[in-house]
Design brief:
MetI-like fold, transmembrane, transmembrane helix, cell membrane, Carbohydrate ABC transporter permease, mainly alpha, disordered C terminus, membrane, 72% helix
């Protein structure tokens, strides 16, 4: 069908809107990158910062040579990789039986799990529970309390329900048990939704800081976002980076903050494009089918 004038105008409007939206989304990153590579005078200049007019790598040098930031980076990588892998494993093992209509009392189990989405124990009971479990100053506190996301597990259950039963029946005829069916048939077929949920979990783990602030006192177990909070919000960047001239550090407050922000955000920015192609497909299929 030949496109009408109205549809062409709508396409032009849609493209213009998406271009503007992309600019709005990208500019904060470009701005912070420019500030991080600027001299103090350039960083304090009013107006739009698309590129540094006066380049200085002093802020990045201070950030990349700071031992605390690499300790936090290592703890964040551990938390993100191990936490995401464990979450996907346990959510898959929980979602698979819930997707089967022959599971006894399936509706009761589902409603019991959904109940946890709306009600929680509160901060103080949760802290006491974590303490009694011996998870204070333990890196497992980053993983175990958030091991299963109810919302994500329900999406995964709906995706599993959409897989034809004939595939599993044929595998059972060949002698496969439920675990083998899950890991060798169901999960490989669920790659789009698993990639989407992995991205959600990874971003959540990477950005989390509150639990580390509450449950971790050992500086060697703190995550990168806690260090970022100290630099950007509480204003401790002078004491954290003051290994040389204090006057030099004072002048580079804003570039150092920007460099720390960029250092924290870059890993997720780099990983996202590799998972983005699965994002829409996994979200739509997992939420609409079942």
């Amino acid at each position: 069908m030949k496109p009408t004038k109205g549809s062409n105008l709508f396409q032009v409007f849609l493209i213009a809107f998406m271009v503007i939206l992309c600019i709005v989304m990208l500019y904060p990153f470009v701005h912070m990158l420019s500030i991080s590579l600027s001299t103090p005078a350039e960083a304090l200049r009013m107006g739009i910062h698309l590129y540094p007019r006066e380049i200085s790598f002093y802020a990045w040098e201070k950030v990349l040579t700071k031992a605390d930031i690499w300790i936090g980076f290592g703890n964040s990588v551990f938390r993100t990789v191990v936490g995401t892998a464990c979450s996907i494993l346990f959510m898959s093992m929980g979602a698979y039986p819930l997707s089967k209509k022959y599971l006894p009392h399936r509706n009761f189990y589902t409603m019991f799990i959904v109940f946890t989405m709306f009600f929680g124990g509160g901060l103080i009971p949760t802290y006491l529970l974590i303490k009694n479990l011996g998870l204070i100053d333990n890196r497992l506190v980053f993983i175990l309390p958030v091991l299963v996301s109810t919302f994500s597990m329900l999406i995964l259950r709906n995706f599993f329900q959409a897989i034809p039963d004939e595939l599993e029946d044929s595998a059972k005829i060949d002698g496969a048990n439920d675990l083998r069916i899950l890991f060798q048939i169901v999960m490989p077929l669920s790659l789009p939704v698993l990639a989407t949920l992995s991205l959600w979990s990874a971003v959540g783990h990477w950005n989390a800081w509150f639990d580390a602030m509450i449950y971790i006192q050992d500086p060697n177990k703190q995550v990168l976002t806690t260090f970022l909070r100290r630099v950007v919000i509480t204003g401790e960047n002078l004491s954290l980076y003051a290994t040389g001239s204090n006057e030099m550090i004072i002048g580079y407050q804003e570039p150092i903050k920007a460099a720390t922000l960029m250092f924290t955000a870059l890993p997720i920015i780099v990983i996202y494009p590799f998972l983005q192609k699965y994002f829409v497909q996994g979200t739509m299929v997992g939420s609409l089918k079942g």
